Each structure stands twice: as C-alpha cells, then as structure tokens.
Description:
The protein is mostly helical. The protein contains three helices and no strands. The protein has a domain at 21-47. The longest helix has 21 residues, at 22-42. Keywords: Membrane, Transmembrane, Transmembrane helix.
Amino acid sequence: MSRLAFLAAEAHEELAPLIAPPGVIAGIVAVLLLTFAIVTYSYRDVANRHSSSSRGASQSQDSAH
Length: 65
C-alpha cells in the first residue's frame, strides 16, 4: 500500500511560481516581437539604397577577373 501512496503523492507536483501572470508575459513577448519587426522593417530602406552601389561594385569586380 505504501507504493500506491507514493505514486499518488508523486502525481501531485507543486508548480513553480511565475514572475508575472502568463497573460502579462505573453504581452511583453508580443511587444518585443513587434519592436523587432519595426526595427527590421526600418532597415529595409537602407538595404534598398545600397543595393545599386553594391551591384555596380560587383560588376566592376567581375569584369576585372
């Protein structure tokens, strides 16, 4: 019978406490992902501005080889 009592006690585990409720943690993660997306989107223009100069540099290097 002691084995059955041990298994019953083992089935009930105490959950670790969280820093904040799950909804708050999910909200913080969503805000961080949105911030990262905005920063990534803002660099899109920089990549488009430099694509023509890098294309010209790669063509001149190709012709030299």
